[in-house]
């Protein structure tokens, strides 16, 4: 057995592309090996800004011989009236190298087909790998593609080298005019010479000698170690939320060298968010803090390369930082010559989205949603007043010079300007928090008004884009719909607040209809809700709570904020023996009443005469108002215990009563009783999915 090494060498890839491309390459190589029946061990991926690498361990030199079944033509078309093989069967047998007498029939979906069993001899793994290698670059997708040569082949960046080794054997493939070889290149400094690689083990060693660390996890550890070495003696540290920037920097360098630079006096006179944004957005550098979370006049950067002439690099970065911060100070000074309100009138010059009008019309929609907040959320009068005012000013900073230069500061700059002008703290916070969470690692808004403003902003965006007919699919997300959906879901779940998404989405659709036409308004409300339901499922999948979420997935979206508490209540009740009985009964109720709607009440004259029927009816009608009362008060353990009290009468009912009676009136009455139980139990959860 030998190791298989594959490398695609490129021009520098955008940092945000690297991790996903590496994962795709690992997935495709693994799939091709498995589909080719090539035995192998672990398949690992590595990457730098210039290369995507896969290393498959313990690849067998040859596949095992195997017996396989091959489906042929339908039996009816395989034989003539006299039972002789037809040309269709003979052609199939020739192609498979079998005798017609060795075929046999198998019924598939009520139709009979001819099958053949044949033995496939073992093949050299190197030949099978060479067969799929040219397909790999075509199978990797990127948010943006480019082509650079005559064939029109597209990739994120031009491919400059291909390498594949199975042990010491060099495998051959070609893509976009680039021929594979057993050479690669080290760190791009000066004019690096080609490196001849003799084996996968030799590849890792030779690249390390050429100052390339192929493993991104190792580069990250090296950066963190160097950061500690620089900052700990000074009692400094990086900020708590620097993980995303560190992920980016890891994919910007092949050999990291960390250095500490000084910030000019200007940095102490600017808002922290501005300094941080300038450093991150323009220089991919880190702001530095003391142990009390105060900003210190330093920044930390990572050079791609060795420490040679690092002082020159430091001075260059300090010069850039000084210039950028002076620009920021100038923009802020110029912007604040006018109040934030003045920029609201300029939003009609900024396009929100193609076919969806300007930021001015978006602001009007947000204001309308804020005015009717009591229809979809529990808000106090002062919260609603702050929400309306925040919605009015929420997009004003998009017209400022500062945000035009530093787009990541949208919302942040508006809050800074309003705060300096003496604005209400609630409105200031809401404007700042409207765009969060921007990533899975970022916290949701801390204030109630900020949460609501963020939710209505994202719902408006989601509604509008889906209303244009755009249908999100796959890994591409050009309009940030996934981020918007995740933000809505996370904010509601993690705040545990009541938000009636169904009503909110309905109001959002009405808002678009009032301010402009939608190209595809048909069933738009349901399409938005379906998309959000998909995001809810994905949220719990990523949290590895799919099994825990399953009993709650059919709850209406208005209950989204209650799901964490319901989960906790079900977890605490997991030891109740009666839950097993209740789960079986609920499953049986659902099977019997399949296709019938849940009943929210029972008529007084319902034809129920047997004692088990009457006992169950009395128990159900007594439990229903209690359960509703407990749910309204968010007392979920009490609601579960009340449902458990129904387990005995339900079991007795099923033990002694034939639901599907021959008398239609009796059968209908019993089915209606079960539909009522389906409604009652479903208010709490789907007990049938408890495991």
From TrEMBL:
Primary localization class, coarse: cytoplasm
Record-level GO BP terms: arginyl-tRNA aminoacylation; glycyl-tRNA aminoacylation
Enzyme class: ligase
EC number: 6.1.1.14
Span of domain DALR anticodon binding: 585-681
GO cellular component: cytosol
Subcellular location(s) of the protein: Cytoplasm
A GO term, aspect molecular function: arginine-tRNA ligase activity
Cited InterPro entries: DALR_anticod-bd, Gly-tRNA-synth_bsu, Gly-tRNA-synth_heterodimer
UniProt catalytic activity: tRNA(Gly) + glycine + ATP = glycyl-tRNA(Gly) + AMP + diphosphate
Keywords per UniProt: Aminoacyl-tRNA synthetase, ATP-binding, Cytoplasm, Ligase, Nucleotide-binding, Protein biosynthesis
HAMAP family from the UniProt entry: Gly_tRNA_synth_beta (MF_00255)
NCBIfam families noted in UniProt: glyS
Subunit annotation: Tetramer of two alpha and two beta subunits.
UniProt record similarity statement: Belongs to the class-II aminoacyl-tRNA synthetase family.
Name of the protein in its database record: Glycine--tRNA ligase beta subunit
Naturally occurring in which organism (per UniProt): Candidatus Cryosericum hinesii
Organism classification: Bacteria, Pseudomonadati, Caldisericota/Cryosericota group, Candidatus Cryosericota, Candidatus Cryosericia
């Amino acid at each position: 057995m030998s190791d298989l090494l594959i490398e695609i060498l490129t021009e520098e890839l955008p940092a945000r592309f690297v991790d996903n491309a590496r994962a795709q390459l690992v997935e495709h190589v693994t799939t091709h090996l498995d589909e080719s029946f090539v035995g192998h061990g672990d398949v690992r991926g590595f990457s730098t800004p210039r290369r995507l690498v896969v290393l498959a361990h313990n690849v067998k030199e040859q596949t095992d011989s195997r017996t396989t079944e091959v489906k042929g033509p339908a039996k009816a078309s395989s034989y003539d009236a006299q039972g002789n093989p037809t040309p269709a069967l003979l052609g199939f047998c020739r192609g498979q190298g079998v005798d017609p007498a060795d075929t046999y029939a198998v019924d598939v979906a009520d139709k009979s087909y001819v099958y053949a069993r044949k033995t496939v001899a073992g093949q050299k793994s190197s030949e099978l790998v060479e067969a799929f290698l040219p397909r790999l670059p075509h199978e990797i997708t990127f948010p943006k593609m480019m082509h650079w040569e005559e064939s029109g082949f597209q990739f994120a960046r031009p491919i400059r080298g291909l390498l594949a080794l199975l042990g010491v054997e060099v495998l051959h493939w070609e893509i976009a005019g680039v021929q594979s070889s057993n050479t690669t290149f080290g760190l791009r400094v000066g004019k690096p010479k080609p490196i001849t690689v003799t084996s996968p083990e030799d590849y890792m060693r030779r690249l390390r000698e050429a100052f390339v660390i192929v493993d991104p996890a190792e580069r990250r550890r090296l950066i963190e170690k160097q950061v500690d070495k620089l900052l700990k003696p000074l009692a400094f540290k990086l900020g708590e939320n620097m993980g995303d920037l560190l992920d980016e920097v890891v994919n910007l360098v092949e050999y990291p060298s960390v250095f500490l630079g000084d910030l000019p006096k200007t940095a102490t006179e600017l808002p922290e968010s501005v300094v941080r944004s300038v450093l991150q957005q323009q220089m991919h550098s880190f702001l530095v803090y003391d142990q009390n979370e105060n900003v210190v006049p330093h920044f930390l950067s990572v050079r791609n390369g060795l420490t040679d002439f690092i002082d020159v690099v430091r001075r260059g970065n300090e010069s850039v930082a000084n210039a950028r911060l002076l620009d920021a100070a100038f923009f802020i000074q110029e912007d604040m010559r006018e109040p934030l309100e003045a920029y609201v009138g300029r939003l009609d010059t900024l396009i929100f989205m193609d076919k969806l009008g300007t930021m001015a019309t978006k602001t009007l929609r947000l204001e309308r949603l804020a005015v009717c907040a009591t229809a979809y959320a529990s808000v106090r009068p002062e919260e609603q007043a702050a929400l309306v005012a925040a919605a009015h000013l929420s997009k004003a900073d998009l017209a400022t010079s500062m945000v035009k230069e530093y787009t990541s500061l949208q919302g942040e700059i508006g809050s800074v300007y309003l705060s300096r002008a003496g604005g209400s703290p609630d409105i200031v916070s809401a404007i700042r928090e409207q765009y969060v969470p921007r990533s899975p690692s970022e916290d949701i808004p801390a204030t109630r008004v900020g949460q609501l403003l963020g939710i209505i902003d994202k719902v408006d965006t989601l509604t509008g884009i889906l209303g244009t007919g755009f249908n999100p699919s796959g890994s591409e997300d050009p309009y940030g719909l996934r981020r918007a959906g995740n933000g809505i879901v996370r904010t509601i779940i993690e705040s545990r607040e009541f938000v009636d998404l169904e009503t909110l989405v309905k109001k959002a659709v009405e808002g678009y209809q009032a301010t402009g036409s939608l190209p595809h308004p048909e069933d738009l409300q349901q399409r938005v809700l379906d998309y959000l339901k998909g995001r809810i499922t994905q949220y719990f999948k990523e949290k590895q709570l799919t099994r825990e979420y399953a009993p709650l997935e059919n709850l209406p979206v208005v209950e989204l904020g209650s799901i964490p508490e319901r989960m906790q209540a079900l977890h605490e009740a997991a030891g109740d023996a009666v839950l097993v009985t209740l789960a079986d009964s609920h499953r049986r109720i659902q099977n019997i009443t399949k296709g019938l709607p849940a009943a929210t009440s029972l008529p007084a004259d319902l034809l129920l005469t047997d004692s088990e029927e009457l006992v169950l009816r009395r128990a159900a009608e007594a439990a229903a108002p209690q359960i509703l009362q407990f749910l309204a008060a968010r007392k979920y353990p009490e609601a579960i215990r009340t449902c458990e009290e129904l387990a005995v009468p339900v079991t007795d009912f099923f033990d002694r009563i034939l639901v599907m009676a021959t008398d239609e009136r009796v059968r209908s009455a019993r089915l209606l009783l079960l539909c009522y139980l389906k409604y009652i139990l479903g208010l709490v959860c789907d007990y049938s999915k408890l495991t």
